[in-house]
Write a structure and sequence with these properties.
Four copies of one chain form a homotetramer. With 400 residues, chain A is of the alpha/beta class. Chain A folds into two domains: 133 residues, NAD(P)-binding Rossmann-like Domain (Rossmann fold), CATH 3.40.50.720; 228 residues, Dihydrodipicolinate Reductase, domain 2 (2-Layer Sandwich), CATH 3.30.360.10. Chain A has twelve helices and 17 strands. In chain A, helix 4 links the parallel strand 4 and strand 5. Chains B and C meet through helix 1 and helix 2 of B and helix 1 and helix 2 of C. Strand 16 of chain A pairs antiparallel with strand 16 of chain C. Chains A, B, C, D: Keywords: Oxidoreductase.
């Protein structure tokens, strides 16, 4: 992408180019084409270990240069922002080094695989901020317009005192017991299963939407399918893995079920699963307050349901707001009312918001401290699950 | 109602004539008009303490005679079945006495306010059965055609191994903190709050649909509004209760949130509330199994959503079955396809099923033992909530 | 049904006891059990040609006596109201005779098979009214609470100037070309096909909801399956009708599609079909006005969708009103909010409203004149369809 | 956009840069980043009359060069494809000239404002094809994955013999009578109103989905608000236009309502409006066939509802297919299941399909002949509306 604008450039260097790398690339490529930005993102370089593969990805996704060592990427002069799209076990090392190298950092969620790593990252971000570098974690669902608007309505008091928070995130790609044992099902690589992958999203959303931290949780987790065909076996036997292929143990959760409390005392419930047959990407949210309620379903992401409890009973009801009006967050730059957006737009909005924050020298949200707070909730979930579901307090970030 | 049929009569005597009494009356009045029954229910007598009020109710609802003492009702020669529609604190006494008086008994849910009462009732029912009297508890939602059909699909294996059970029952009639302190908010009369009222329904449904008992639970309960205007104060001040009216303490829960496990290991989650603004009678159910999923919403009670996981991915999806076909439970006797039923039809179906069981001398379901099992789950919920949500085993009925 | 109330009796005599007879019986049996009525309906006698069958129906449905000749039924002293539930070709003769015999009349829809018959009936009703007898036509869907409430909202001006009326009524029981040739598919008996059966309902609803007559229509009709197995052939061959069974011509429409104008100039569209696979009883309505819109679907009959165009764009949206609040029409007498009603409740409401009108000596709606106006629209539809869809004026009733 | 790929370049020159220009730019920018394309689109130049504005647009949207005269653009050596995004009254002149200049052409819909223009364009396209230039019209909704998949299901016979086609496209931006009189409400510029704008889309979709041309139509059109404030008056008076601002006549339709027949005899109904309050971009489609039915709503564009009439009645129902599986059209290149797409993706898919057609030298669909056929239907609609809705045959393209 050439630098075809009058705004100053912001060089971006991305580490990783798989699913998240493709999504982030779409964000960087598109943000300045839709929004008026104070800085123009330039897709300077992408980094991956395999020289050929990263070159192919760069051509395909539109990155100007490639690196095979992230340590080189983070020292490039044409890179001011490092975008970390690797698996969770390398987030801490790369992000901290990039911050220390004087770069701004966008780090994919979950922030890290452990609380200790996340603490180190939040510390590094706090120090970097004093030097003028900013850090943000990529909880992209905050940038679904309907959810950003939900937050606005809540912040304006349209729900009143909160009573209930109900969030589930259900997928079904592991229903088949012959689905092979990928790295995502191994604890040493993935940290946890549905909990870290899907649970991180919904814990962040619950805290973002309510504006309140979770103060404690009670949890159960489960691995329904305890052994799966090894990928090599599965691949080699062309579907006949059951016949004689080797199997290995699944060492992460397939599903997690937990309840909690927000700081104001609302009851919160959470469920994540990769075994919910028929549910593809079903992140659903409901909040009930004394003055109103909101409901949302990611499979219908342009819609927000709102019940106004002040409405007379005879005409009251959940109204389906199409969140596509120019008054809605992010929508002033897109299409006319009713012309919906999709999943990847969250990455365009994320890029836009981060660019604005960098230009203004302001802390972007969610911060690494926010990411650390999510990590602490997930740790409390795992601790509670080990302790027979007993209600387990969540350590609070000082900054959160 | 005259006895205008060739089938032998089954005399019914009902205790109580409020909301549930009206609903049961509709059931007794209608069942033989729609279904072909082996016995013809005759609405022999209704019982209430106030002579004038019960006489008015009898005329209105169609009962042939009245009583003001349930002890007299249960000895009437023209009564073979006693239908107990009183609040929960008198269920045990009336139901046990009626069984011992040689009558069949239908008892409204929840079976009782305590496990001890419920055990006594289950024992009495077991003894009565040997003498030929039958007892049934009124979990009427089992008779929603869509839920009865859901049970059939599950029993036939269409969901396969169950992974997730998710049931919520949300209402909003207590959102307003000025709503007065009725008996339903006082522990000594009501036993518990949303838990006993709504929770009993969804625990029974979860066990009915899965065919599996819950083996343990982890729970939180909450009373969001801790004091409310006394009814006299509220009434006397015509809405200005806040000004100076007396208030009393709410001694039951407004909401309960619990997770559990079924005997086969499925993860189960439950939530009940009277504070979920905008939700009127929102009993929603979802079950995910290895072979398929089901979803149901009581606010759309003629519909069942079914996902068949064996369907090719490209044409798979939750299908909305209108449960109004002659092949569906109870529907052979009602209207053509697409002509939906309502809430009260569950009581017609309950009457029909109980009449068939009595004619055949067969145990109707749900039995008092089933009602006791629900009571044990509710007790475990309260115990867990007192013990910091720790996972608490549910004592199992020998019969269940 | 014994006369167990202090209200004066209103003796009802019903002619016909098939689908509509069963539905009307449910209405007469239930109305006084739920609503406080000024007159108590007594199910005096039912009439049918076959002595045994009518006796069985009387026992089953709860009628006190039987007749085999409607001419005798309409002269019975214990009958003050004649309820005509026969096929359309006998409506005129029975209804006119009953009115002339000094009885009130409820006549099933459509009012008649021809405009001439309907005119005679409207004339007879006008004369009868002067003598104190009242006549009503059974467009029961006006008594769905959501539609009665929709009419209220429109009458209050909540939609403003109307622009669009869109009503369809789709069923699928004739999709199978081997479905046998019943009387409903023969013009001499049924008058027309989907048009008279389903079209009468939606034309009445459009006129009722808008409060405006249709002034003209443009129409197409179609008979997709032009020959069907004769019932005897179909029955005799146990499903193998195609092999060699006789077939006969279908002489009515399978579907009709028409557009029209209301008297204020709104554009109206209508479609009825018995060939819309997957649609069981899908009567859907949408009205768009300058100030708001309403949408309704009979398969979800407890819901009404309302868009208030005065709401700010950012929070506007179709709200799903559960029409189960005590403020809603008919609901004060039924169950708590969220406990939905079904199809047959429309007949209970119809009975209630007619009883009130008779007690007050007031003209019930819809009148025979309203039924005549519907008939004139259907005649204009058939005329337009024969004339290449040219816009065809609808003759207006003087009274309508 | 630099040419950062190994595929040969395809230079694109676009005329116009408003709403459609922005949407097409998004398509050209993204197609090769997501799909593997045989040619790499290069955004060579954009053309607009105002030099400054077009320069700003080029920077913003990513075009390498600018032109202020389309006659120069179509002769540029670096342009092989001309993308016409101007209003309809200039389509014919630009598209024909571009084809004659040896360029491929993509022309926005509707193809033209008159049948005569459309015929000239179809002729030019036929001649150009012999020389190797290809022409396509931009009916982008064919590229909504759910609609592309619907076409596949129909082509495979999953609906069987078609009985009903029902398509509406409703918007509400003209509900307010004070909305000013823009060029879209003036016949000399816009050709027609909702009919040409929205009606062109749904006529094309009906013909695309069924694979059948419409053979005749019966129509009504309406202009509900006959005068509107002139834009200058409206602007100058800041909302107080009613007070004394000038008004001008609206010379196009606000809404059109028409019925028709497909070549196989299915009944078709259509409605378009800019006055349907609460409907933002509500393009809804339903098709009923002997073997099944499909339903679609553009406001939920990732979903397709499918009823399989071969399914046993007890488990049959409209299933909600999330059209986000890799098996679905276009989805192999996007995100995992359940991660939905939005409106603008249709332009990415359009770019992809056109690039493939050009690389293969194959006629892309929809062709200019297809666009002409739509134009003929719209002309027949206007003719019928002038002739009292009489059924009016549609002239058939020889090629269609």
């Amino acid at each position: 992408m050439s630098h075809d604008t009058t705004a100053p450039a912001l060089g971006v260097g991305m580490v990783g180019y798989a699913f998240m790398g493709a999504a982030h690339s779409q964000g960087w490529r598109t943000a300045a084409r839709v929004f008026d930005l104070p800085l123009h993102p330039v897709m300077a370089a992408v980094c991956g270990r395999d020289e050929d593969k990263v070159a192919t990805a760069a051509r395909k996704l539109g990155w100007a240069a490639t690196e095979t060592d992230w340590r080189r990427l983070i020292t490039r002069d044409d890179v001011q922002l490092v975008d970390v799209c690797t698996p969770g076990d390398s987030h801490a090392e790369i992000a901290v080094a990039a911050l220390e190298a004087g770069k701004h950092v966008l780090c994919e969620k979950p922030l890290a695989n452990t609380v200790a790593e996340a603490e180190a990252m939040a510390d590094a971000a706090a120090r970097a901020r004093e030097r003028g570098q900013l850090a943000m974690v990529g909880f992209n669902y905050r940038r679904v317009p309907a959810l950003a608007y939900a937050r606005e309505l809540i912040a304006r008091g349209r729900l009143g005192a909160l009573r209930h928070v109900r969030v589930t995130y259900l997928q079904d790609w592991l229903v088949d017991p012959e689905f092979p044992l990928a790295w995502r099902m191994q604890r040493e690589k993935a940290g946890s299963g549905a909990l870290g992958d899907l649970g991180a999203h919904i814990v962040d959303l619950a805290q973002f939407l309510t504006g309140e931290p979770l103060v404690g949780v009670s949890a159960q987790t489960e691995t329904f399918v305890k052994e799966r065909p090894l990928p090599s076996a599965a691949a080699g036997l062309s579907g006949a893995a059951a016949g004689g292929g080797e199997r290995g143990p699944v060492t992460v959760d397939d599903a997690a079920l937990f309840t909690g409390r927000t700081s104001s005392g609302a009851l919160a419930s959470f469920e994540v699963s990769r075994m919910a047959s028929g549910r593809k990407n079903a992140l659903s949210v409901e909040l009930n307050g004394e003055a109103g309620s909101l409901a949302f379903d990611l499979e219908r992401l342009n819609e927000l349901e709102f019940h106004d409890h002040a409405e007379p009973a005879e005409t009251a009801g959940f109204r389906r707001i199409l969140v596509t009006e120019p008054e809605h967050p992010y929508l002033e730059a897109w299409w006319p009312p009713g012309h919906g957006l999709g999943y990847e737009h969250t990455f365009v909005h994320q890029a836009r918001d981060l660019v604005h924050a960098i230009a203004a020298g302001a802390q972007p949200a969610p911060s690494f401290a926010d990411g650390l707070q999510v990590q602490r909730v997930l740790a409390a979930v795992e601790e509670s699950a080990e302790k027979n579901a007993v209600f387990t307090p969540v350590a609070q970030s000082d900054e959160a």
